[in-house]
Recover the amino acids of this structure.
């Protein structure tokens, strides 16, 4: 007897959407065919926040499995995310369980989309990199990025914004550091400067975040970085607060306290309003 349906779906109808509880079940389905549409209810299990929709297609020589946008199916095909305009890090396997190193999942998501959302959880991060016109946002205070403190180099940062990147936005996070008094200095956010002012800077923002317990700076802006708007921050119990080695930046509505070194350092002509510093 010829089997025409599996799990209630006509296996000859490529447009019929297949549903799976998790990504691994999808990858193990040898009956998937190019042109089919697939939806997972979660990444590791249903309702874990990693649900996504995929299109099944032939594999190309340029495909690289990144555990998010591209998944290799057991039969040699590829499942590709149907929408990468805005991504959730859980769609790339981030767990946010305060144990798992989620660095790779975050970076893979950032490599695929200009808009990356971080839901509730405590995500262990080593170092991630943002580029031009990228937004990384969460839901403060439940979206927490916790710095991995083992095997760090002096002067490391948890988040880097690459040089000459414009219109970068970071908002809505609780940032936890490696310990204020840890000997190896590790900061939270560093914006890497270019070699000159030759590239104009579109407005970038860092806002609505809480920083604590880093042995380096909360925010460090290199020379030749401008037009950053830094606002609505709380920076508590840190080695260093905000360091701006550039000009034409704006710091507002921010509380800085319990800082061992400089609370707010301005290396050029910048704008400050509504900043409260105590024990700085």
């Amino acid at each position: 007897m010829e089997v025409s349906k599996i799990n209630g779906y006509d296996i000859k109808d490529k447009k019929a959407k297949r549903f799976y509880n998790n990504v691994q079940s999808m990858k193990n389905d040898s009956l998937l065919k190019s042109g089919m549409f697939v939806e997972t209810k979660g990444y590791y299990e249903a309702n874990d926040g990693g649900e996504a929709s995929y299109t099944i297609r032939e594999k190309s020589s340029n495909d690289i499995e990144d555990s998010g946008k591209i998944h290799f199916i057991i039969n040699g095909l590829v499942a590709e995310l149907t929408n990468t305009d805005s991504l959730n890090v859980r769609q790339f396997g981030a767990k946010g369980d305060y144990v798992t190193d989620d660095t790779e999942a975050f970076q893979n998501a950032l490599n695929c989309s200009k808009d990356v959302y971080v839901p509730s959880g405590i995500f262990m991060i080593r170092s991630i990199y943002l580029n031009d016109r990228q937004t990384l946002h969460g839901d403060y205070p439940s979206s927490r990025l916790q710095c991995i403190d083992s095997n760090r180099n002096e002067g490391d940062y948890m988040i880097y914004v690459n040089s000459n990147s414009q219109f970068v936005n970071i908002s809505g996070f609780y940032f936890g550091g490696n310990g204020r008094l840890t000997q190896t200095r590790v900061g939270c956010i560093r914006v890497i400067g270019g070699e000159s002012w030759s590239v104009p800077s579109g407005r970038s923002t860092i806002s609505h975040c809480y920083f604590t317990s880093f042995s380096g700076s909360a925010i460090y802006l290199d020379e030749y970085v401008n037009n950053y708007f830094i606002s609505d921050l709380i920076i508590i119990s840190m080695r260093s607060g905000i360091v701006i080695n550039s000009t034409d930046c704006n710091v507002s509505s921010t509380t800085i306290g319990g800082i061992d070194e400089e609370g707010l350092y301005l290396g050029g002509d910048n704008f400050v309003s509504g900043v409260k510093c105590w024990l700085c």
